[in-house]
Amino acid sequence: MRAKPPTTCRTARIAAALLVMATALPSPTSWAQGANDATKAVAADPQDAAYWLRNREGWFWYRDPPAAVRRPAPPAPKPPRELADFEAMQRRLEDLKRVAVMNPTDANLTAYMRYQRMVMNKSEHFAERWQRLVWTVPDLDYGLSGRPTNGMAINVFDEQQRERQAQTIKSLAATHGLIFVFRGDCPHCHRFAPILKRFEEEFGFTVLAISMDGRAIPEYPTARPDNGMAARLNATAVPALYLTAPATREIRPVGFGVMSMTDLVERIAALAQDAPAGARQP
After folding, report:
1. 27-36, 207-216, 257-266, 271-280: which has the minimum mean pLDDT?
2. Which of 42-56, 72-86, 125-139, 258-272 has the lowest mean pLDDT?
3. Measured distance CA(217)–CA(82) in Å, rounded
4. φ/ψ of residue 191, rounded to 5
5. Could you give the C-alpha distances from 182 to 9, 133, 165, 236, 264, in angstroms and in order?
6. Residue 205 class from Cβ within 10 Å (0-12 exposed, 13-18 middle, 19+ buried)?
7. pTM of the model
8. Contact (Cβ atoms closer than 8 angstroms) between residue 179 and residue 251
Protein backbone atom coordinates (compact mmCIF):
# COMPACT_ATOMS: atom_id res chain seq x y z
CA MET A 1 0.00 0.00 0.00
CA ARG A 2 1.39 3.31 -1.08
CA ALA A 3 1.65 5.98 1.64
CA LYS A 4 -0.28 9.30 1.28
CA PRO A 5 1.70 12.35 0.45
CA PRO A 6 2.45 14.68 3.42
CA THR A 7 0.71 17.56 1.75
CA THR A 8 -2.53 15.70 1.54
CA CYS A 9 -2.41 14.78 5.23
CA ARG A 10 -1.68 18.39 6.24
CA THR A 11 -4.59 19.61 4.14
CA ALA A 12 -6.90 17.06 5.71
CA ARG A 13 -5.89 18.10 9.19
CA ILE A 14 -6.48 21.83 8.36
CA ALA A 15 -9.85 21.00 6.88
CA ALA A 16 -10.80 19.05 10.01
CA ALA A 17 -9.72 21.95 12.23
CA LEU A 18 -11.71 24.41 10.17
CA LEU A 19 -14.73 22.16 10.45
CA VAL A 20 -14.41 22.09 14.23
CA MET A 21 -14.13 25.92 14.32
CA ALA A 22 -17.12 26.25 12.04
CA THR A 23 -19.25 24.15 14.39
CA ALA A 24 -18.09 26.24 17.39
CA LEU A 25 -18.74 29.66 15.78
CA PRO A 26 -22.27 31.22 16.05
CA SER A 27 -24.52 31.20 13.08
CA PRO A 28 -24.95 34.32 10.86
CA THR A 29 -28.29 34.88 12.52
CA SER A 30 -26.54 34.95 15.91
CA TRP A 31 -23.98 37.41 14.56
CA ALA A 32 -26.74 39.74 13.42
CA GLN A 33 -28.49 39.36 16.75
CA GLY A 34 -25.22 40.17 18.53
CA ALA A 35 -24.70 43.26 16.44
CA ASN A 36 -28.24 44.40 17.16
CA ASP A 37 -27.71 43.82 20.87
CA ALA A 38 -24.51 45.91 20.76
CA THR A 39 -26.31 48.70 18.95
CA LYS A 40 -29.10 48.62 21.52
CA ALA A 41 -26.52 48.75 24.30
CA VAL A 42 -25.00 51.87 22.78
CA ALA A 43 -28.41 53.49 22.44
CA ALA A 44 -29.40 52.51 25.99
CA ASP A 45 -26.22 53.58 27.72
CA PRO A 46 -23.26 54.77 25.62
CA GLN A 47 -20.96 54.48 28.63
CA ASP A 48 -21.55 50.70 28.89
CA ALA A 49 -20.86 49.99 25.21
CA ALA A 50 -17.39 49.04 24.01
CA TYR A 51 -15.30 51.98 22.90
CA TRP A 52 -14.91 50.65 19.39
CA LEU A 53 -18.71 50.65 19.00
CA ARG A 54 -18.73 54.33 20.01
CA ASN A 55 -16.59 55.36 17.08
CA ARG A 56 -17.97 58.89 17.02
CA GLU A 57 -16.63 59.69 20.46
CA GLY A 58 -13.27 60.04 22.07
CA TRP A 59 -10.27 60.17 19.81
CA PHE A 60 -12.10 58.36 17.02
CA TRP A 61 -14.18 61.44 16.10
CA TYR A 62 -14.28 65.06 17.20
CA ARG A 63 -17.77 66.45 17.40
CA ASP A 64 -18.45 70.14 18.01
CA PRO A 65 -21.08 70.97 20.63
CA PRO A 66 -24.41 72.02 19.21
CA ALA A 67 -24.65 75.73 18.61
CA ALA A 68 -26.91 77.55 21.06
CA VAL A 69 -30.10 78.68 19.48
CA ARG A 70 -30.42 82.41 20.06
CA ARG A 71 -34.01 83.33 20.41
CA PRO A 72 -34.96 86.76 19.15
CA ALA A 73 -35.82 89.27 21.86
CA PRO A 74 -39.51 90.04 22.13
CA PRO A 75 -40.39 93.32 20.49
CA ALA A 76 -40.73 96.29 22.80
CA PRO A 77 -44.32 97.30 23.42
CA LYS A 78 -45.38 100.16 21.26
CA PRO A 79 -46.18 103.27 23.31
CA PRO A 80 -49.80 104.37 23.18
CA ARG A 81 -50.73 106.96 20.60
CA GLU A 82 -51.98 109.32 23.34
CA LEU A 83 -48.50 109.53 24.82
CA ALA A 84 -46.99 110.62 21.53
CA ASP A 85 -49.78 113.15 21.01
CA PHE A 86 -49.25 114.60 24.49
CA GLU A 87 -45.52 115.00 23.99
CA ALA A 88 -46.11 116.63 20.61
CA MET A 89 -48.61 119.03 22.19
CA GLN A 90 -46.12 120.01 24.88
CA ARG A 91 -43.39 120.61 22.33
CA ARG A 92 -45.71 122.69 20.15
CA LEU A 93 -46.83 124.84 23.09
CA GLU A 94 -43.26 125.39 24.26
CA ASP A 95 -42.08 126.27 20.76
CA LEU A 96 -44.86 128.82 20.29
CA LYS A 97 -44.06 130.33 23.67
CA ARG A 98 -40.37 130.70 22.89
CA VAL A 99 -41.10 132.28 19.52
CA ALA A 100 -43.53 134.73 21.15
CA VAL A 101 -41.02 135.63 23.87
CA MET A 102 -38.22 136.25 21.43
CA ASN A 103 -40.39 137.99 18.84
CA PRO A 104 -43.62 139.24 20.50
CA THR A 105 -45.51 140.22 17.40
CA ASP A 106 -49.28 140.13 17.29
CA ALA A 107 -49.21 137.05 15.08
CA ASN A 108 -46.82 135.15 17.36
CA LEU A 109 -48.68 136.10 20.52
CA THR A 110 -52.01 135.19 18.98
CA ALA A 111 -50.71 131.80 17.86
CA TYR A 112 -49.37 131.05 21.32
CA MET A 113 -52.50 132.27 23.15
CA ARG A 114 -54.84 130.29 20.92
CA TYR A 115 -52.84 127.11 21.37
CA GLN A 116 -52.60 127.70 25.12
CA ARG A 117 -56.38 128.10 25.28
CA MET A 118 -56.77 124.75 23.55
CA VAL A 119 -54.44 123.13 26.10
CA MET A 120 -56.36 124.74 28.98
CA ASN A 121 -59.63 123.41 27.59
CA LYS A 122 -58.17 119.91 27.59
CA SER A 123 -57.03 120.38 31.18
CA GLU A 124 -60.48 121.59 32.19
CA HIS A 125 -62.10 118.58 30.54
CA PHE A 126 -59.63 116.31 32.33
CA ALA A 127 -60.47 117.87 35.72
CA GLU A 128 -64.20 117.53 35.06
CA ARG A 129 -63.89 113.86 34.17
CA TRP A 130 -61.71 113.34 37.25
CA GLN A 131 -64.36 114.86 39.51
CA ARG A 132 -67.14 112.77 38.01
CA LEU A 133 -65.14 109.59 38.56
CA VAL A 134 -64.46 110.53 42.18
CA TRP A 135 -68.20 110.88 42.74
CA THR A 136 -68.78 107.28 41.68
CA VAL A 137 -65.73 105.59 43.27
CA PRO A 138 -65.68 106.21 47.06
CA ASP A 139 -62.12 105.01 47.68
CA LEU A 140 -60.83 107.71 45.30
CA ASP A 141 -62.62 110.50 47.19
CA TYR A 142 -60.10 112.16 49.49
CA GLY A 143 -62.94 113.95 51.25
CA LEU A 144 -64.08 110.62 52.72
CA SER A 145 -60.66 109.68 54.12
CA GLY A 146 -59.11 113.10 54.83
CA ARG A 147 -60.44 116.56 55.46
CA PRO A 148 -63.70 116.99 53.51
CA THR A 149 -64.34 119.81 51.09
CA ASN A 150 -68.08 120.19 51.70
CA GLY A 151 -68.95 122.96 54.15
CA MET A 152 -71.34 120.89 56.30
CA ALA A 153 -68.94 117.94 56.32
CA ILE A 154 -66.11 120.25 57.38
CA ASN A 155 -68.05 121.28 60.48
CA VAL A 156 -68.61 117.66 61.47
CA PHE A 157 -64.97 116.81 60.79
CA ASP A 158 -63.71 119.74 62.87
CA GLU A 159 -65.98 118.85 65.78
CA GLN A 160 -64.72 115.27 65.83
CA GLN A 161 -61.15 116.44 65.57
CA ARG A 162 -61.60 118.89 68.46
CA GLU A 163 -63.04 116.12 70.60
CA ARG A 164 -60.11 113.85 69.88
CA GLN A 165 -57.63 116.63 70.57
CA ALA A 166 -59.37 117.51 73.83
CA GLN A 167 -59.17 113.94 75.06
CA THR A 168 -55.52 113.74 74.10
CA ILE A 169 -54.63 117.00 75.86
CA LYS A 170 -56.53 116.07 79.03
CA SER A 171 -54.63 112.79 79.19
CA LEU A 172 -51.37 114.63 78.64
CA ALA A 173 -52.13 117.09 81.46
CA ALA A 174 -51.83 114.25 84.00
CA THR A 175 -48.11 113.82 83.27
CA HIS A 176 -47.02 117.14 81.73
CA GLY A 177 -46.98 120.80 82.64
CA LEU A 178 -46.49 124.20 80.97
CA ILE A 179 -43.83 126.84 81.56
CA PHE A 180 -44.95 130.39 80.76
CA VAL A 181 -42.16 132.98 80.39
CA PHE A 182 -43.24 136.63 80.19
CA ARG A 183 -42.41 140.19 81.06
CA GLY A 184 -44.67 142.42 83.13
CA ASP A 185 -44.22 145.33 80.74
CA CYS A 186 -44.99 143.25 77.60
CA PRO A 187 -48.42 144.06 76.08
CA HIS A 188 -48.39 140.82 74.10
CA CYS A 189 -47.87 138.88 77.31
CA HIS A 190 -50.89 140.60 78.88
CA ARG A 191 -52.96 139.70 75.80
CA PHE A 192 -51.86 136.06 75.85
CA ALA A 193 -52.15 135.47 79.60
CA PRO A 194 -56.00 135.28 79.68
CA ILE A 195 -56.00 132.80 76.81
CA LEU A 196 -53.46 130.61 78.55
CA LYS A 197 -55.41 130.82 81.81
CA ARG A 198 -58.58 129.61 80.10
CA PHE A 199 -56.65 126.79 78.46
CA GLU A 200 -55.21 125.83 81.84
CA GLU A 201 -58.62 125.67 83.49
CA GLU A 202 -60.33 123.81 80.64
CA PHE A 203 -57.79 121.04 80.22
CA GLY A 204 -56.37 120.78 83.74
CA PHE A 205 -52.78 121.78 83.04
CA THR A 206 -50.41 123.08 85.69
CA VAL A 207 -48.68 126.28 84.55
CA LEU A 208 -45.39 127.52 86.00
CA ALA A 209 -45.21 131.29 85.31
CA ILE A 210 -41.78 132.95 85.23
CA SER A 211 -41.38 136.72 85.07
CA MET A 212 -38.22 137.95 83.43
CA ASP A 213 -38.47 141.44 84.97
CA GLY A 214 -39.92 140.38 88.34
CA ARG A 215 -43.31 142.00 87.66
CA ALA A 216 -46.52 140.02 87.79
CA ILE A 217 -49.62 140.07 85.61
CA PRO A 218 -53.23 139.71 86.83
CA GLU A 219 -53.74 136.12 85.64
CA TYR A 220 -50.52 134.93 87.32
CA PRO A 221 -49.95 137.12 90.38
CA THR A 222 -47.66 134.56 92.04
CA ALA A 223 -45.25 134.25 89.11
CA ARG A 224 -41.71 133.35 90.07
CA PRO A 225 -38.85 135.72 89.26
CA ASP A 226 -36.42 134.52 86.64
CA ASN A 227 -33.38 132.81 88.18
CA GLY A 228 -31.72 131.92 84.89
CA MET A 229 -34.50 129.64 83.66
CA ALA A 230 -35.27 131.90 80.67
CA ALA A 231 -31.65 131.75 79.52
CA ARG A 232 -31.58 127.93 79.84
CA LEU A 233 -34.78 127.74 77.82
CA ASN A 234 -33.37 130.19 75.25
CA ALA A 235 -36.46 132.35 75.63
CA THR A 236 -35.32 135.19 73.41
CA ALA A 237 -38.89 136.33 72.69
CA VAL A 238 -41.90 136.68 74.99
CA PRO A 239 -44.45 135.46 75.63
CA ALA A 240 -42.90 132.00 75.43
CA LEU A 241 -44.63 128.72 76.27
CA TYR A 242 -42.98 125.33 76.84
CA LEU A 243 -44.32 121.82 77.39
CA THR A 244 -42.43 119.86 80.05
CA ALA A 245 -42.51 116.29 81.35
CA PRO A 246 -41.27 116.32 84.98
CA ALA A 247 -40.73 112.56 85.00
CA THR A 248 -38.18 112.74 82.18
CA ARG A 249 -37.21 116.42 82.53
CA GLU A 250 -37.93 116.91 78.87
CA ILE A 251 -38.84 120.43 77.76
CA ARG A 252 -40.13 121.31 74.29
CA PRO A 253 -41.26 124.71 73.03
CA VAL A 254 -44.93 125.14 72.18
CA GLY A 255 -44.61 128.58 70.60
CA PHE A 256 -43.73 132.24 70.98
CA GLY A 257 -45.88 135.34 70.77
CA VAL A 258 -49.63 135.59 71.14
CA MET A 259 -51.38 132.28 70.36
CA SER A 260 -55.09 131.69 70.13
CA MET A 261 -56.96 128.92 71.92
CA THR A 262 -57.12 126.97 68.69
CA ASP A 263 -53.36 127.32 68.23
CA LEU A 264 -52.69 125.99 71.72
CA VAL A 265 -54.96 123.00 71.21
CA GLU A 266 -53.47 122.06 67.84
CA ARG A 267 -49.85 122.52 68.89
CA ILE A 268 -50.05 120.67 72.19
CA ALA A 269 -52.10 117.87 70.62
CA ALA A 270 -49.39 117.52 67.97
CA LEU A 271 -46.69 117.42 70.64
CA ALA A 272 -48.70 114.80 72.52
CA GLN A 273 -48.36 112.43 69.57
CA ASP A 274 -44.57 112.64 69.88
CA ALA A 275 -44.51 112.24 73.66
CA PRO A 276 -42.68 109.09 74.90
CA ALA A 277 -44.99 106.21 75.81
CA GLY A 278 -43.73 106.19 79.40
CA ALA A 279 -44.56 109.88 79.84
CA ARG A 280 -48.21 109.50 78.76
CA GLN A 281 -50.99 108.27 80.91
CA PRO A 282 -52.44 104.97 79.62
Report:
1. 27-36
2. 42-56
3. 69
4. -75, -35
5. 149, 54, 26, 11, 17
6. buried
7. 0.52
8. yes
